[in-house]
Amino acid sequence: MASGSGNDTAATEGRTPVVTRFAPSPTGYLHIGGARTALFNWLFARHHGGKYLVRIEDTDRARSTEPAIEAIFDGLGWLDLLGDAEPVFQFARSPRHAEVAAALLEGGHAYRCYLSSEELAGRREAAQAERRPFRIESEWRDADPGTWPAETPYVVRMKAPREGETVIEDQVQGTVRVANAEIDDFVILRSDGTPTYMLAVVVDDHDMGVTHVIRGDDHLNNAFRQLCIIRGMAWPEPVYAHVPLIHGSDGAKLSKRHGALGVDAYRDEMGVLPEALFNYLLRLGWGHGDDEFINREQAIEWFDIAHVGKSPSRFDLAKLLNLNGHYLREADDARLASLVAPRMTGAVDEALLARAMPVLKVRAKNLNELASGAAFLFAQRPLTIEEKAAALLTDDARGLLAGIAEALRDATDWTTEALEVRVKALAEEWGLGLGKLAQPLRAALTGQTTSPGIFDVLVLLGRGESLARIDAQVIPAEPA
């Protein structure tokens, strides 16, 4: 197999409008690699003013499930990558697939093969014993239809070319060649009359008007077989772009041991925003100069296949979370509050949560950290004090808190600026650094050693709640 280079302009020349498709198998969640494939297809279609379609390849009835279909649409919807038309369900089109198989038989491009599974197994074992590659050599390939036995099960096989080579000008992999002798006479219709994946994909792509097939490079070998069907039907050949798979940070193929694989896990468990995952997947194997933050409109304007790399990309969760932190800081505060509230326990005032967002999201990298950082706002008294925070509440510190409470009790201007002036003046009066006051104050107000700025905390909690929490530490509750 040899490779050269592709050209995005050539890929679209003379082919308008562009039609792409994302065609997942509903056997589980929307895989992170599948989400990137959907993204690339969506962007390519948008960039060229074309159409992006979704097809559910549910011909594997044993493994295809309704929950998996729902999970795929849920993930695509979250990323705003649903198709431009109603989705196509492959299994429902089985009669059309069989119709094409019959046309290929009629045209002499396919044949009925009556070899039994036992005969094939015997020939495969013989090839292994003789240490030679196993190739289907069916005596039924050129048999006269008049010799076809009645009432005997058969499959329909394509007559793959045996001489020369098949060449694909792949827009990512370059020029790829395969000797036709390596392509078997593959099955397109099973003995029960159901189509195989190889046939269904080709028929659906043709009927949907797909002009560009952008998919993972694990499908590259399939393209050579699929071209046999396309050429047998004298259909237009799509432009192929086989994108390298995503690997883990260690360079190995991405698997469960590298962490979450489903889009839903990044949303639900890790608290990632859709725009962050969109941006990260875009740059996973494609780039635009040194641009790191690329919004949806820029992505549509800039995206091309020519700049998709040939090497596998490495998924780096730390980079994704750093990117997510950027989008958290850019996000609307009310929207963030609505996303964070369900991650918190107890009653939550979303309006207060939204007001707190400007100071909460400064260092947060995900929605879970926002929820954790906001927990003090809605904590009920008596406050649960973390061990490290409790260590700050010494007898001397409680004395300082009593003085702070007294100084704040008659404050008429409860703003960050005014409160800062009061507490700083108190620190100077007592000859202490501001930290000596802020540390026990933070412990009393939040029960933690980390929080937003202490004056922001006072304002967010309000005068009544702030003084009540401070007083609770100045005069500890009697043991029950």
TrEMBL record:
<dbReference type="InterPro" id="IPR000924">
    <property type="entry name" value="Glu/Gln-tRNA-synth"/>
</dbReference>
<dbReference type="InterPro" id="IPR020751">
    <property type="entry name" value="aa-tRNA-synth_I_codon-bd_sub2"/>
</dbReference>
<feature type="binding site">
    <location>
        <position position="256"/>
    </location>
    <ligand>
        <name>ATP</name>
    </ligand>
</feature>
<dbReference type="InterPro" id="IPR014729">
    <property type="entry name" value="Rossmann-like_a/b/a_fold"/>
</dbReference>
<feature type="short sequence motif" description="'HIGH' region">
    <location>
        <begin position="24"/>
        <end position="34"/>
    </location>
</feature>
<keyword id="KW-0436">Ligase</keyword>
<keyword id="KW-0963">Cytoplasm</keyword>
<feature type="domain" description="Glutamyl/glutaminyl-tRNA synthetase class Ib catalytic">
    <location>
        <begin position="18"/>
        <end position="320"/>
    </location>
</feature>
<dbReference type="InterPro" id="IPR049940">
    <property type="entry name" value="GluQ/Sye"/>
</dbReference>
<keyword id="KW-0067">ATP-binding</keyword>
<comment type="subunit">
    <text>Monomer.</text>
</comment>
<keyword id="KW-0030">Aminoacyl-tRNA synthetase</keyword>
<dbReference type="InterPro" id="IPR020058">
    <property type="entry name" value="Glu/Gln-tRNA-synth_Ib_cat-dom"/>
</dbReference>
<feature type="short sequence motif" description="'KMSKS' region">
    <location>
        <begin position="253"/>
        <end position="257"/>
    </location>
</feature>
<feature type="domain" description="Aminoacyl-tRNA synthetase class I anticodon-binding">
    <location>
        <begin position="336"/>
        <end position="472"/>
    </location>
</feature>
<dbReference type="Pfam" id="PF19269">
    <property type="entry name" value="Anticodon_2"/>
</dbReference>
<dbReference type="InterPro" id="IPR004527">
    <property type="entry name" value="Glu-tRNA-ligase_bac/mito"/>
</dbReference>
<dbReference type="InterPro" id="IPR001412">
    <property type="entry name" value="aa-tRNA-synth_I_CS"/>
</dbReference>
<comment type="function">
    <text>Catalyzes the attachment of glutamate to tRNA(Glu) in a two-step reaction: glutamate is first activated by ATP to form Glu-AMP and then transferred to the acceptor end of tRNA(Glu).</text>
</comment>
<comment type="similarity">
    <text>Belongs to the class-I aminoacyl-tRNA synthetase family. Glutamate--tRNA ligase type 1 subfamily.</text>
</comment>
<dbReference type="InterPro" id="IPR033910">
    <property type="entry name" value="GluRS_core"/>
</dbReference>
<dbReference type="InterPro" id="IPR008925">
    <property type="entry name" value="aa_tRNA-synth_I_cd-bd_sf"/>
</dbReference>
<protein>
    <recommendedName>
        <fullName>Glutamate--tRNA ligase</fullName>
        <ecNumber>6.1.1.17</ecNumber>
    </recommendedName>
</protein>
<keyword id="KW-0648">Protein biosynthesis</keyword>
<dbReference type="InterPro" id="IPR045462">
    <property type="entry name" value="aa-tRNA-synth_I_cd-bd"/>
</dbReference>
<dbReference type="GO" id="GO:0004818">
    <property type="term" value="F:glutamate-tRNA ligase activity"/>
</dbReference>
<dbReference type="Pfam" id="PF00749">
    <property type="entry name" value="tRNA-synt_1c"/>
</dbReference>
<keyword id="KW-0547">Nucleotide-binding</keyword>
